[in-house]
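User: Structure tokens for this complex, please. No commentary.
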Amino acid sequence: MQDAVVIGVGETRHAPRRDDVTTTELAWEAVSAALDDAGVELDEIDNAVTASQDFWEGRTISSMAVNEIVAGYLRPEAKVAADGAQAVMYAWSRIVGGTYRLGLVVAHCKESAADPHEVDVAAMDPFYLRDLDVDEIVAAGLQAGRLGYPAGLRAAAVAACASRSPWRDALDADAVLASPETATPLRELERAPLADGACALVVADSATAAARGRAGVRIAGCGTATDPYWTDRDLTAVPALTAARDAALGAAGWDRLPGIVELAAPFAHQALMWGGAVGLGDLERVVEHLAGGGSPRGGWLGGAPGVVAGLSAVAGGVRALRERPGRALAHGCTGILGQSHHVVCLEAA
Amino acid sequence: MARRVAIVAAGQTDHVSRRLDVNVAELAREAVDRCLEQAGLAMAEVDAVILGNMEMFEGINMPDQWMASTLGAAGKPLFKLNTGGTVGASTAVAATQMLAAGTFRRILCVGYEKHSEGSVQSAITTVGDPLWERSVMAGAIGNFASMASVYVDESGVTEEHAAKVAVKARRNACRNPHSHLKLPDITVEDVLASDMLAYPVRKLDMCPSSDGACAVLMASEEDATGLAERPAWVHAAVTAHDQQFMGDSLKRLAEMRSLIAASRKAYAQAAIGSPRAELDVAEIYEPATYAELAMYECLGLCEKGGGGRMIDEGVTEMDGALPVNPSGGVLSANPVGATALIRVAEAALQTMGRAGERQVDGVERALATGYGGNAWSEVLILSADRP
Amino acid sequence: MTDEPLRLERQITLRYRFAAGRFATPFFRALRSEGRVLATVDADGNALLPPRPVSGLTNTPTTGWVEVGPTATLSGYTVVHVPFIDPMTGVRRPVPYGFGLVRFDGASTNIYHLIDETDRAKLRVGLPLEPVFKPVEERQGNLADIRFFRVRDGGEPAPARPIPPPDASDPLVYEQKIDLPYVYTAGAAQRAFLRGLAEGRMIASVDGDGRRYVPARGHAPDGRPLPGTEEVGPRGILEAATVAHHLPGAPAFGLIRIDGSETPMLHRLGEGAQRLGPGAAVEAVFAAGQEEPSVNAIAHFRPAP
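Assistant:
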């Protein structure tokens, strides 16, 4: 079996609106940056795993837009309709099993190009929910109500993530609490802002990385799990996250959480809940973690688009470990209220 | 050393034009249940599920999340792939790669489509690039027929050749209980008398749109021999894509670049020097009769321009040297999200000796292909021998 | 109650803003205002149309721009007899019509377009063509600005002509509305539930141990089949409530556990139910005169006495 090593990272400067580029051009910004970072030519890439959602892209088989920029001509490209962190798991398997040696993982989304309410409603059960015209914000309000976390702590979580983020202006908790009400008890700024952006990794087997003089950051293990649909489960618990975490830690052979844990949660109350579920401690400890060095980029609340947030978390973990070797755990989620969770363990000696 | 991987069971629904009794999730579950029944396994013993389908065709965003419980996948790792018509094969390719890595030991691949719930024309719009490919459209048939004319021009295949493929498919389908179309008495004359949809493609040259699902259980070597008497070992699982736009290839069908590339790589991986001689059966993804003839050539089963002669000489008939599509092929059943997985399933059943009335004798090696997206291809080679 | 098939006809309307970026913007500007056709070239001299940042043939960024055509050559053709309603315009194109793959002279790739010829005998690969444009004032900056291609009478095809990179500033954004009609076929449990609602009744699915699931569904959350159904009372316990200020009318919604159900159902809250706390009793208020089975057979939930 091979080791899979991240030798290149590229990411766009996520922004509320990128009207200057097509999806292809946006993703290419991230891919070309990752290739430059890795010292790899596009033509050397032997496979790609991409992550995008057709309803956000307004296109069936949305990866068609990025096939040429990931060396897809006569080579394999596979698209997961999920957060980019799950694409990492698939790409990791391809390297570990020796199928491929030098690949790209790419996630991209232009949230400004779609109507988020329409995209959300289309994910609602067509028999029982669609006709009520509810979106994910409604679902999140119900969840936040059940959790009952103090508004001040939720606001502090947002402020902490924004403060870490390279893509958002700093925000204080008061501004969050003063923002318009959405689905009670939530406020508008408790939710990650919509964004356009892309992120890419170059992943190699260790022999290839070594031959290129790159130590890289090893993908030590990955895990993914899916809970039942949001109306069929206890919204105050997140077993899929603990299952994904345990699978990833088990694959990595780790017996505890590392110091760097980057979660991608779209709502403040989820950052708090999932922080607790992944093992960061009580709510106050989670907020401290989000504000401190343990969360390099601020996760989804930091301003990456949803489909990209988990891959961005992985990229953040890689960058952090390049500066200071050790271990990091990155996370992404897919589905309404985080129905599925994907965890990636990273290690650099 | 990467683990060896095999297909150990397969299940399908009976494909029809409309399933009015079940919702789309229940349709997929039906195939899952049939597959697990063949394997003698409970869902609790499956490690991961890989689902293939195109979201805008049935109008449910993130359908994998919505149907996780109905599939029996809640609590498990669940992946959703979307690569167009090839997606069914993509799930098998992904499973092969994850099993080889030891990420999981038993993976259930599921493909499904409920065409009766969507509008094919609207769905086809969404496939096109929004800036370049939506303002002037002629639907899937117009696009395909434009490609087919180039192949006809270059190869000299006639409408009779194509009609023979249609007859082969629909007669083969009569021995397949799952098939959507079964036309036991169909003749070449019937095909030539059917309405011309878009030159050169006639109605009986085209595949149907079906409601259906397929599930295939794959396992790594530790489990494979315990789960099937005669597993179908994966000797090659190759994917090749193409450039970005639909018109980029000058000879999209006549020289399908992705299929030529993928098949050559697959033959090399499986140590096949002469595919026509060394393969015992093939299940190929032929969206229309002309495509099958072109694919014979792109797959290297005959020389360029030799597709017509292959069908004239009966090479690919059930009693020929290399039967192609004993199941009746895409021409007889086409639930798009499942179609490529059905090719894999049928090739596996042939290799496992479990293809019932449509079983070809003495299958040791089988070929399965997927086609879709922007003329993308997937090629799998299965064998009764462990690699 | 009948068990005839139940199919819910619904439409999803999706609105998008597609940015044209650095390559499509100058292409469509040139096409629309000047009738000129541009392409990008790669390191091997392939002229790629549509223009793009990276050539898949070389796996390198494209290196520059050329002008091609406007004459063209037929690469593949058909005559279509199947009526096709253009989803972008709703207009049904009269049949038969010519269609095919068209290569602008000087380009290495094709586009699909209409051909002004319906006699198949007159079409062949290699036929010289020329575009017929719409009048300038009717053009919209897409490939339909070319009405169709027709057979060209003579004239040598010009090769690709290098041009300086065109101005890509002030990029275009195209708005698109896609109407997608769907027909959602209900399974047995959904048929029972939705038809039950239409009759003012609440139907649960039941498992072998008597556990109930409302709304009715074919499988439990853990995947076990639920073949049985039973009627339950329309009362339940409110688990959570929210007022959606971000939606028009600020509707209130709640998760309600009907009569001992393992799972909650989502619905609107009215008549003061939105002010209730978790654990309060609520009941369904059925709406009169619904034309077909749907969850709107319940108007909302209100506090239960």
